[in-house]
Amino acid sequence: MNSFPGRMSSSGTSSEQRPASQTALAVALLRAFHQLYDGEPKVLDDPVVLKLLEPQDLNKTKEEFARFESKPAKALRVHVVLRSRYAEDCLASAVSRGIRQFVTLGSGYDTFAYRQPDWAKELTIFEVDHPASQGAKKRRLTASGIALPPNLEFVPADFEASSLRDILARSSFDFSRPAFFSCLGVLVYLPQEAIDALFRLVGSLPQSSELVLTFSSPKSASGVESGFRQLAQAAAAVGEPWRTYHEPQALRCALVEAGFSSVDFLLPEQAERLYFAGRADKLPPPRRASIARAVV
Question: Which residue of 64, 75, 155, 160 pairs with 227 in a disulfide if CB–CB is 3.0 to 4.6 A?
Answer without folding.
Answer: 75
